[in-house]
From TrEMBL:
Gene3D superfamilies: Peptidoglycan recognition protein-like (3.40.80.10). It comes from Promicromonospora aerolata. Residues 78-215 form the N-acetylmuramoyl-L-alanine amidase domain. Signal peptide: none annotated. Residues 22-49 are annotated as: Disordered. Belongs to the N-acetylmuramoyl-L-alanine amidase 2 family. This is N-acetylmuramoyl-L-alanine amidase.
Length: 355
């Protein structure tokens, strides 16, 4: 079994401890029964890797009250937990991440960066991606971590039968914002009879483990979360707009296909695998092959940005990327990096209905 991961302060106090359950891989009890679960209510159609299916929204009122940005919106890159869980959770635990503590007016890009940092911790320690189910920032915005029906590594020995609500930052030394408490209350209420049983208790991680988690200031507010109604702010990218995150995946491709009048399937077909690793900002929906034939949407884009007819081969590469960057007025280097300025400019244009 992988050893637990402890985060301590300068005096040796364990502020948070992450641990996996000592069980084999495979289907297991402990997640929502009878519904397709994955990216959450308020899925924003983001573009980083994700292989999960959007969950059904029970009614419009619930969708309005609880808005959680998808894994794709922040750029998830690693596995979505290690097990598919069935049956509702029987406990809910409040955690704090003890990572960078952002301000309440932090940008969506800064929050997405912190989500990827959290994911890297879980991946490096356990190989299963981000540890927590949902993460709430001081802004009150909430982001899906490990999906509700997948097992994380948040509460050792209880990961299979519980779910986690994590506050980003250190709440041993900092007070949670009212927006965070409101969001957590809305999520806890929404999860009853959906992600956990109606009578599933809400507890602090410290109640079942040798840790100060979720920090004394947040622990003091658990009753407010348990009894509050609350609401969540709109997810990044709502309503109906692309998340401007600089990752070009299926959502961006679909909008581009709509704009250019090609088949709308979110797929950029038959692209040379030679250019894949050099362009990490190209994420979901890109088909990388050794003998590329090209894609209609890329050929249409090449025409739109003014490339000569002899250059319109439907294939992404340095020549096409440079032409796109010049067209968009961003730095020209022939590469689509993570959080690419060119992709952000493209996403803004697509949100405005133009290329």
């Amino acid at each position: 079994m992988v050893e637990p991961y402890e985060i301590k302060d300068d005096t040796g106090i364990v502020l948070e401890v992450l641990a996996a359950d000592d069980e084999p891989q495979g289907d297991l009890q402990g997640g929502p029964q009878g519904e397709t679960v994955g990216e959450t209510v308020g899925d924003t159609g983001g573009d980083a890797p994700s292989d999960i299916v959007p969950m059904a929204v029970p009614d419009a009122q619930a969708q309005a009250a609880v808005s959680i940005a998808s894994r794709g919106s922040w750029g998830a890159r690693y596995p979505d937990g290690d097990l598919t869980l069935t049956g509702p959770a029987v406990e809910v635990f409040v955690h704090h991440s003890v990572t960078a503590h952002l301000s309440a007016d932090a940008s969506i890009a800064a929050e997405a960066e912190q989500m990827r940092a959290l994911e890297s911790v879980g991946q490096s320690r356990f190989g299963t991606g981000i540890s927590y189910n949902v993460v709430i920032f001081p802004s009150g915005r909430a982001y899906q971590g490990v999906s509700w029906n997948r097992r994380g590594t948040h509460t050792g020995g209880r990961n299979s039968t519980s779910r986690s609500i994590c506050f980003a930052g250190n709440y041993e030394t900092t007070t949670p914002t009212s927006a965070q408490i409101s969001t957590a209350a809305a999520i806890y209420r929404e999860g009853k009879d959906r992600w956990w049983t109606r009578d599933a208790p809400l507890r602090g991680h410290r109640d079942v483990s040798q840790t100060a988690c979720p920090g004394r200031h947040l622990y003091a507010r658990i009753d407010d979360i348990r009894t509050g109604s609350g609401s969540t702010p709109p997810s990044p990218g709502e309503p109906d707009g692309l998340v401007v995150d600089g990752f070009w995946g299926s959502a961006t491709t679909r909008r581009l296909q709509q704009e250019l009048g090609t088949t709308v399937d979110g797929v950029v077909s038959s692209q040379s695998v030679y250019w894949r690793d050099a362009n990490p900002g190209l994420t979901t929906g890109w088909q990388w092959v050794s003998d590329a034939l090209g894609s209609r949407v890329i050929a249409a884009l090449q025409a739109r940005i003014g490339m000569d007819s002899g250059q319109r081969d439907g294939k992404i590469g340095p020549q096409t990327i440079r032409a796109l960057q010049r067209h968009l007025g961003t730095p020209v280097d022939g590469v689509i990096s993570r959080e690419s300025q060119a992709v952000m400019a493209l996403q803004r244009r697509l949100n405005a209905g133009r290329v």
